[in-house]
Amino acid sequence: MARPSDEKMAVDERPDYKENVESQVDEYTNAGLSPEDLAFLQNFPPEHKKKLLRKMDWRLVPLLLFLYLITYIDKVNIGNAKIEGLLPSLGMDGTDYNVAVSIFFIPYILAEVPSNMILQHFKRPSYYLGAIVVAWGIVMTCTGTVQDFGELVAVRFLLGLFEAGLFPGAILLISRWYMPNETQTRIALLYTAAASGGAFSGLLAYAIAKMDGIGGYDGWRWIFIIEGLATVLMGVLCVVALPDSPSLSSRWLTEDEARYLTLRQVTRAVKADPDGPKHKIDWAVLWSVVSDWKVYFLLFANWSQSVPNYALKFAMPTIMRGMGYQSANAQLLTIPPYTCGALSSYGFSVLADKYEWRMPFIVAPQVSVVIGYAILCAKAGNIEDNIGVCYFAVCVACFGLYPILPGVNAWNISNCSGPKKRAISIAYLICAGNIGGLIGSYIYIDSEAPSYPTGYGCSLAFAATGIVAAVSLEGLLMRSNKINAQMTEEEVRAKFSDEKLHQMGDRKGGDPVQRILGDAPYAQKITAEGDRPFHDDKAVTAALPPAAVAHELTSFYFDTCAVTYRFLHGPTVYLWLEDLLGMPSADIPRQAPQGSKAAIVYTIFAISAYRKEQIRSSSRATLPESRESDLYFQTAELLASQETGRVSLQSVQARLLQVLYLLQTQRVTQAWYTFGALLQMTSALGLHRREARRRGAYGDKSSPDYITSECRKRTFWAAYTMDTYLCVVLGRPKHFHDEDIDQTLPESVIDEEITSDGPKSSASENDSLIDGLVHHSRLAQLLGAATRDVYSVRRISRQARMAAVDVLRRQLRQWKDRLPPHLGTVRPSSLIPSLMRQSVALKLAYAHANMHIFRPLLLENVNYLSGNVASGVHECLEAARIAMETINGMANNGSLFYSLWWINYVVFCAVSVVYIADIQASKDNSNNLVAGNSREDLMELAERCQHHLSDSNSSSRRYAIVLDELLREAKRTRNRGLQRVPNNLEQRECSDSMQSHDKPAESQAAGANLGSQQAHQAQADLLDLNGPFDEDYNFLDEWSISDWLELDSSVWDPQIL
């Protein structure tokens, strides 16, 4: 049987699945644990585990058991007091009694969830639980002194208020100490106290009632007084003796035992404390519990015991007396039914934990309840003639009632991920379940004795409904689990963010959601933090594809996948491929390629296979299935890692291809660290130096042939360009410095027209695909200069910074003017596909370079823009518009706009520029920044592009999350209509020491509010955006220029998803 689950939770265990601590550690090997902690957890001796579990049982469970026993007795002893003369003593009738009983449940129900939310904040739960126990003990003692119905109602209300926190708090405490497969037995022991309490309550009431007349108090008063004083003493003991957490239990736990208990709780969730800051109420978590449909199936299952059980608790002594027994005997005869309940509660729970399956051990007791109440419905009308049968039916009903609640709560605990959600869910289920107590208080009507058709009938109906609920929930979850099992990892990732996946609960097993949870960004190695995980296939390497497939993949790479990073020599790669296939095509002695050459071929397979899947999945709202390409890539990694001897040019090329694949498949962290190794190899080979000047890694001065010479240039400049873009995208410093480089750019000769001796004499002057690499490299030089000169962290004046911007503006225009026609002036749609892709890529790269150079000017005083500053701002916004229109057009045409790894960042840059400009424009009374209609058009276009980002892949969703915040701030700022005079740039950036510029007098008088149409639109946009914001606050007032880079890098924070 497949374990039932759904898209949010793993909710039940199956008979053929043995769960223990070791298996959980294996399932969660990456669950935020360091290698040392993981090794400690896995190697903890099994005999010590059993001994430790017993030690916990003896320290924690007995105290909780006695606390709940007292809770139960104090809750139901009003039923015992009733048959000892409570009603006539206070001048009450049956209706008054029902009111006094039911009033308890109003605060009891309402306070359970808030109580657990409060308890969650206590480092020492014993203080909180001890305090509420003492409080209701005092209330219980006062109950023995009440003089009329009103006073009884008041003390019952207070009793419900203070008792509300004990049971959910105890279950929460159990969930903090025990693993899910260990909880039901412990909860059952707790609930056994309730059954025992029913028996013990009758016995105790019988004994205490003998004190009738002592001190002038009736016997029923002594029941409340004695039991109340005992409760106060237990509350004090709770503060002193109740264990809080392993880390605070050094008196009875060794250091290793405390560490083991703490670490195994960590394995229950992929991320520690996923519910956010503990000092705030997380309404999202509360809503996730309240809106979860599965909770309501569990609620009906809970009502199948709470309605009949509460009704039976209050009515049992009266029912016994209705069978013809006197008061004392009626008290004593309540003991056997509750004893049956205690034994069954523990027995069913042991079986449920043993087989790790909840549903059967909930339904079987429910069937017993149905049988018991069916007999009572049939025979209670003539109870005098059916005393034995009815008494047996009461025992059968109690036998079934008490195992249900432990099973329901254990099922619920298994569903919850995170301490806050667990705390709220436990309390909410118990709280809603206690509505059954409110119902049960009224269904046994004295005038219907002894048949009690309402009481027995309602109990029977709720028990039958519970069976339907439990079986239905099991069936629905099995169906959902089957659907989940058929989902690929990419489909799951496309449907859910990583954080949402984490909130889906504690999962075990092999379904796609669990695979993702187990490899979530916060659970991965530091060299893969935040990355999309690889498929966990048993195969370690990929078999070489058939020759026809291999050639097709290689051709596809050179024709489609290699856009501007064209650093490989195609004919040479085909020779390596043929050697790898064992199919030499010429009489040239060669050995089969090993190491990096084979790695290059396999990485080409990986890139081509992934791109083909991108194309196939472009019509679906899912990420491409990358299982085949991942296997090719992992094979390439293995081959490259096994290379021996000297570093070669192919060593660098293999890793450069690996970086491209990792970036394309949203594995930025791994790409970053692989690129670090590539940099070291590049420097060791001296690729940054001209051949005539450089020395190799081993001091040799070699003269490479023309093909090798050109490949060295291509490889270096591809690495240089990647270094520039990686560092811009991630907001990090560059590694290559222009003053250390004298390598020349490659010649614009296509692969087929170069030989070892030089270009063919017949080399054509047609457009070359190498032009894309050459001009992209030149643009990367300008981009690097902009990062160095405009975003410098050094103290430079505003004039120096503006001078750098002017220089870069001229150089950028010169770059554009030097583009060959097929990359510049010719419309891309009129070009062949390979040249069209290069043209579009360079168009976007040029737009990004403009934004990168000019976006710092958006932080200027927007009311006083003039000259080069105003021109730069407008160029920045124009570049953003061009980039967004290009992306929007590609997305609308079904093109893979995200097929180039850096395009997501270009979209993010463009949209963020527009949003920040809009925020600034809210202060621009003169519309110097952006005119009204243009502003609205830009915002509409930006939101469309943001939508494209959120729909494409997991990497772009990171950008969309940050853009959501900027968009909300833009709308808030519009709504506020900020009119404060903004400070100038040097006020925001103390490190830049910029000098303020003059403010034209006429600008000070300029300004008007947004037009009525814009104002109404802004108001409409903000109907769902309200909150306690400072009306004069604009976060950009605190920005420095370097904060642009911080914005870029914030996207890659591991907590962003």
Automatic annotation (TrEMBL):
<keyword id="KW-1133">Transmembrane helix</keyword>
<feature type="domain" description="Major facilitator superfamily (MFS) profile">
    <location>
        <begin position="60"/>
        <end position="484"/>
    </location>
</feature>
<feature type="transmembrane region" description="Helical">
    <location>
        <begin position="220"/>
        <end position="242"/>
    </location>
</feature>
<keyword id="KW-0539">Nucleus</keyword>
<keyword id="KW-0813">Transport</keyword>
<feature type="transmembrane region" description="Helical">
    <location>
        <begin position="153"/>
        <end position="175"/>
    </location>
</feature>
<dbReference type="GO" id="GO:0008270">
    <property type="term" value="F:zinc ion binding"/>
</dbReference>
<feature type="transmembrane region" description="Helical">
    <location>
        <begin position="58"/>
        <end position="77"/>
    </location>
</feature>
<feature type="region of interest" description="Disordered">
    <location>
        <begin position="977"/>
        <end position="1015"/>
    </location>
</feature>
<dbReference type="InterPro" id="IPR036259">
    <property type="entry name" value="MFS_trans_sf"/>
</dbReference>
<dbReference type="GO" id="GO:0016020">
    <property type="term" value="C:membrane"/>
</dbReference>
<feature type="transmembrane region" description="Helical">
    <location>
        <begin position="357"/>
        <end position="376"/>
    </location>
</feature>
<feature type="transmembrane region" description="Helical">
    <location>
        <begin position="187"/>
        <end position="208"/>
    </location>
</feature>
<protein>
    <recommendedName>
        <fullName>Major facilitator superfamily (MFS) profile domain-containing protein</fullName>
    </recommendedName>
</protein>
<feature type="transmembrane region" description="Helical">
    <location>
        <begin position="127"/>
        <end position="147"/>
    </location>
</feature>
<dbReference type="GO" id="GO:0003677">
    <property type="term" value="F:DNA binding"/>
</dbReference>
<dbReference type="InterPro" id="IPR007219">
    <property type="entry name" value="XnlR_reg_dom"/>
</dbReference>
<dbReference type="GO" id="GO:0022857">
    <property type="term" value="F:transmembrane transporter activity"/>
</dbReference>
<keyword id="KW-0472">Membrane</keyword>
<feature type="transmembrane region" description="Helical">
    <location>
        <begin position="896"/>
        <end position="917"/>
    </location>
</feature>
<dbReference type="Pfam" id="PF04082">
    <property type="entry name" value="Fungal_trans"/>
</dbReference>
<feature type="transmembrane region" description="Helical">
    <location>
        <begin position="425"/>
        <end position="445"/>
    </location>
</feature>
<dbReference type="InterPro" id="IPR011701">
    <property type="entry name" value="MFS"/>
</dbReference>
<dbReference type="InterPro" id="IPR020846">
    <property type="entry name" value="MFS_dom"/>
</dbReference>
<dbReference type="Pfam" id="PF07690">
    <property type="entry name" value="MFS_1"/>
</dbReference>
<dbReference type="GO" id="GO:0006351">
    <property type="term" value="P:DNA-templated transcription"/>
</dbReference>
<keyword id="KW-0812">Transmembrane</keyword>
<feature type="transmembrane region" description="Helical">
    <location>
        <begin position="457"/>
        <end position="478"/>
    </location>
</feature>
<feature type="transmembrane region" description="Helical">
    <location>
        <begin position="97"/>
        <end position="115"/>
    </location>
</feature>
<feature type="compositionally biased region" description="Basic and acidic residues">
    <location>
        <begin position="986"/>
        <end position="1001"/>
    </location>
</feature>
<feature type="transmembrane region" description="Helical">
    <location>
        <begin position="388"/>
        <end position="405"/>
    </location>
</feature>
